[in-house]
Specification:
By secondary structure, the chain is an alpha+beta fold. The chain is built from 7 helices and 16 strands. Helix 1 packs antiparallel against helix 2 and helix 5 runs parallel beside helix 6.
């Protein structure tokens, strides 16, 4: 409970730090690495998250912090994305979030995701279950993909990567922020989501924790279980959904790859 309360407090403080910045009216710069935009809101949230979350002996991995590989020797590590969905934040689309995960020995044990624009807060631990805005929540109970509501990466849809799924018996909705898509799936507000391109640990760690807390299934696109606090924090694409949908989703993806 101490860990979840710390996550809750960190999400609240980070949302407050972002609040002076108006989505849709924020100046964005390109990261020095060339991998996407960054704003002053990203930096502000990163500072607050680190102040609230990290304690002596704990490691840190954040999209907006210089990676200190000393984290590899830590049992507990915080994996955060201060503002996942910066493209949507800059465009004024309410599909961005603050993402926080606690990892122990390479496995997620707790996580929290907050979407300040929509007022949604998802909190959960693998041991204690999932809450959505303070109420118990669970992953989808669907047993068939027929009519399933699936969240897709807006960027992947724009690039045409979801065209092979257009004739599948599912409803596809392009949505920003992979962390937000995983949170919605964890709480049963979507039946499934998958990403067809590699992701960084900070993109998905909290979402993985929430899906597992909600009783859903989650695995890498190559079928392996997601592991965290790696020297290179990159994972293959991720697949998540209601527990009864795993085999059907894997079959759908394999027949259209």
């Amino acid at each position: 409970m101490d860990d979840l309360e710390r996550i809750r407090e960190a999400l609240q403080e980070a949302a407050a730090a972002i609040s002076p910045f108006v989505p849709g009216a924020v100046k964005a710069d390109q990261k020095p690495s060339g991998r996407g935009p960054v704003t002053e809101a990203d930096w502000a949230a990163d500072r607050i998250l680190r102040e609230v979350l990290q304690r002596e002996g704990e490691g840190w991995l954040s999209e907006e912090s210089t990676d200190d590989l000393a984290r590899l020797d830590k049992k507990r590590i915080w994996v955060v994305d201060p503002l996942d969905g910066t493209l949507e934040f800059v465009a004024g689309i309410p599909e961005w979030c603050i993402s926080v995960a606690l990892v122990e020995d390479g496995k997620v044990v707790a996580g929290g995701i907050s979407n300040p624009s929509s007022g949604e807060v998802f909190l959960g631990s693998v041991a204690g279950g999932l809450t959505y805005n303070g109420r118990r929540a669970h992953a989808s109970a669907l047993t068939t993909l027929e009519g399933a509501f699936v969240l897709a990466s807006r960027s992947e849809v724009k690039r045409g990567e979801w065209e092979p799924f257009r004739n599948a018996p599912i409803t596809i909705r392009p949505t920003g922020s992979v962390a937000y898509k995983l949170a919605l799936t964890a709480a049963g507000l979507a039946d499934a989501t998958w990403t067809l391109t590699p992701k960084s640990e900070w993109d998905v760690a909290a979402g993985v924790a929430l899906v597992e807390a909600g009783g859903g299934f989650v695995e890498c696109l190559d079928g392996s279980p997601p592991a965290f606090n790696n020297p290179s924090p990159r994972l293959s694409g991720l697949v998540a959904g209601g527990p009864a949908l795993r085999a059907q989703i894997r079959a759908l993806i394999s027949t259209r790859s």
